[in-house]
Design goal:
mainly alpha; 7 helices
């Protein structure tokens, strides 16, 4: 059994707010990675569609700012969830599979981030966005490639980067963890 999978980084953001800062940082960096992918594939989404869902005119880097703001909020949610004792215990738990038993917490957090990013893609653009646009009378939903492969890829990239940055920057050693097994 490898001890590496149950250990965490010996450095990083610690204390009561370490997860908060790590989540915000990971969310911002993940949103920038996702934004660059969107900008390369369909720049209208960043420039016009994101401000439009709030009823705003596309002015300068407003879409980028809103997008990174969304990433920061989602990063904080990820940090809150990932540091719950049961989830952290699941991520730290030693497993019988050789490949997984050799992975450290950063890679496991990146995997958790990938799952989180796909969950965000399922919930926000597919379910919440249409309801939001109808409720506030905004526009721009038709400009979103919500069900498109690009949207799924972008959210998966966001979550993976978020999880990796979170795992690399937050000191999880002092956090209680409960193994669900």
């Amino acid at each position: 059994m490898s001890n590496e999978s149950t250990t965490t980084a010996a450095f990083g953001l610690s204390g009561a707010t370490g997860w908060l800062v790590g989540g915000a940082l990971g969310g911002a960096i993940g949103a920038i990675a996702f934004g660059l992918l969107m900008w390369l594939l369909d720049p209208v989404v960043l420039d016009a569609a994101i401000p439009a869902i709030y009823g705003l005119e596309p002015v300068g880097p407003l879409g980028w700012g809103i997008h990174v703001g969304h990433g920061i909020v989602l990063g904080v949610v990820f940090g809150l969830l990932a540091t719950r004792p049961s989830i952290l215990g699941l991520l730290r738990d030693d497993v019988e599979t050789d490949v997984l038993s050799r992975t450290g917490i950063v890679l496991r957090m990146a995997g958790a981030g990938l799952v989180f990013g796909i969950a965000v893609w399922t919930i926000l653009p597919l379910l919440v966005l249409p309801v939001w646009v109808n409720a506030v009378g905004g526009s721009g939903a038709e400009m979103f490639p919500a069900v498109a492969a690009e949207s799924l890829l972008g959210h998966a990239l966001f979550g993976t980067v978020l999880g990796a940055v979170f795992g690399a920057t937050v000191d999880l050693r002092g956090r209680p963890a409960e193994s669900p097994f």
